[in-house]
Amino acid sequence: MEITELENNLSANVAPEPELMRLRVSGMTCTGCASTLQRVLETRREVREASVSFAAGIATVEGVKLDSKELIGAITGQGFGAELINPDDHPDQNSDIEKQQLRNESIWRHRAIVGIGLWAPLEILHWTATAMQWHGPWMSWLMFSGALVIILFAGSEFYRSAWNAAIRRTTNMDTLISIGATTAFTYSTIVLVFQLDHDHPTYFAEAAGLLGIVSLGHWLEARASFRAGSAVRELLRLQPETAEVLDDDGSTRIVATSFVKAGDRLIVRPGGRIAVDGLVIEGGSAVDQSIVTGESVPVDKSPGDMVVAGSMNTTGRLTVQTTVDGRHTTITRIADLVQRAQTSRAPIQRLADRISAIFVPTVLAIAGLTVVGWWISGDFSRGIISAVTVLIISCPCALGLATPMAVMVGTGAASRRGILIRNAETLERVGRATHVVFDKTGTLTSGLPEVTLISPDAGHTEDELLQLAAAVEAPGEHPIAKAVVRAAASRGLSLVTVENFRAIPGLGVTGLVAGRAVTVVRDEHATARVTLDGKRIGTVTLTDRLRPDAIEALTSLKHAGIQVSMLSGDKSAAALTMGRQLGLSETEIFADATPESKAEYIRARGRDVIMVGDGLNDAVALAVSGLGVALASGTNVAIEAAAVVIPGDRVQAVAELIELSRATLRTIRQNLFFAFLYNTLAIPLAAFGLLGTSGPLWAALAMGVSDITVVGNALRLKRRLDRM
Known about the structure:
Layout: H1 2-13, E1 19-26, H2 31-42, E2 47-53, E3 58-63, H3 68-76, E4 81-84, H4 96-131, H5 137-153, H6 156-167, H7 173-193, H8 204-228, H9 230-237, E5 242-246, E6 252-256, E7 265-268, E8 278-283, E9 285-288, H10 290-293, E10 299-301, E11 306-307, E12 312-313, E13 318-322, H11 330-343, H12 349-376, H13 380-393, H14 397-415, E14 420-421, H15 424-432, E15 435-439, H16 440-444, E16 450-456, H17 462-473, H18 479-490, E17 498-504, E18 508-513, E19 516-522, E20 527-532, E21 535-543, H19 550-559, E22 563-567, H20 572-581, E23 589-590, H21 595-603, E24 609-613, H22 619-625, E25 628-631, E26 644-646, H23 652-687, H24 695-723
Parallel strand pairs: 15-22, 15-24, 22-23, 24-25, 25-26
Antiparallel strand pairs: 1-3, 1-4, 2-3, 5-6, 5-7, 7-13, 8-11, 8-13, 9-10, 9-12, 14-26, 16-21, 17-18, 18-19, 19-20, 20-21
């Protein structure tokens, strides 16, 4: 009974594992909608963190005991649609992001075509009639009719969004658009109906043009988001829709990839793509696996080798036994990781979110003061138009787009290089990093020592020396032991079974080979000294080779102003020898490192340090850094668990990661600067009536230009990163 109570108490004190739930959200018309939804979700007790992406139309929620029905209810209660994204669903060739973006693009395209297509001819006719002085009463009624059609069609989405915000006792960007267009149209209708004198001009064209131009801006934004989010689509299109399954009777059949089960045998013909991860059981071929490594040089595959979904089979026919089902391949896991990163929110965006939350009410207050100020000065008509101009020109759309557009581009560009970034926060922190610490073995080196020199003493031969050393090393698990055994096997040397084998930690191994005492002692230079019956008979020298691009990677990082260090468990002499080959100074090399001392070394260097390791014996240091970068591939690591995963055979990818992260962070800062500068300068100009009687129209154009500037800057980043 006491044991049961103790177990219950322990269970009660253990914090439950957080859950992650993603929902597809429809009906958002601006980034303000996403910010509002995020605040609503984060107020729920079971939610630890929430992120809502307007560009992707996806809400990501992390918490404990999440209930999808309650979360959907919270979203629909705000006037939006929502549905759960089942993590086990197989993604179509078109991703969820793509479908949402296509829907947005279609909606705004139709509204822009109607708005601009109707407003532009009416505006031209109005100018022409005025210039030719045959502007009669019919012109005002024609402008009224055209503006009414545009308000009812192109403006419906703005009004719906503004109304939903109003009943929730909040505001958004569409509130400003709706009030601005309604005020201009209502004022003009009163002037027209009551036939006031010509001192009160009408603004039907401005109201119509506002909705048409803003709709055009939203259409361009949707198209740009579609282009910026192309990484997920490109990944998913690499996985074939069908696979050729080999049955037990030797016949084959074509099935949808999503129906392939673990353990099925697939036929992959030359020129075809591998549909599902698996193990080659028959055949041989060169396989282009750039989806994982980022390198397009094909790799030879033979029975016993792993192959990854999406890889291209180039030369021979392969029979592959699948290790996962068709819904959980490496390529779908990578695509899901990229999608999560693209829909996450960077810390730098919080500033924009906080400003947006108070921005709209502040603008409404400024607009009200503008009307009152001009009314007191005796020009109520100009006050109305100036207030409308304030409402339109101050819409913070660009502020909301500044960060997510750049994040989508940056994470997408990384994925095309085989670099997988967990979220936007990681991307931002990498861009701020000042120090990169590399583990040596398995990171800067291949981690597979090779015998490079056999030096027998007088009276002994190379084969005799190697045969004795390999015999006593055979039971060992040390990388040096395996290298010696491999060298003996390559020479076709037979090995006698060792007796009384004993491994001495930090020293070597000993045992009896054919009744004679053989000892292999390893020194700090990775040289194995071999003795026979207590007498030295020679040495075997081993070298852990540098990765081909290790020197280039460290040189690139130093040129970028990054401080570089190397951690190694080797003795000082061996670590210094390797470090000098890499161009490192003695102060940049930390030898005799244990897992604990590695972690302490990282912890002492603060938060702006990146730890790069192979993910095996560097787990503690990787976790402590907060910016752990693992060299691995999607086939042999849990890619969802790493902050960043880079291709296992490309150390240079670390330099690429920092370069693209810095470029992304720089673009975010530029976008935020453009957005803040625009609103800071534009609102005073509008309030003081400096944009003239056509202020609302100029305001709509200026707002569109600000959005396009931010979006265009993100697309410029995409072109630059694609050329890297």
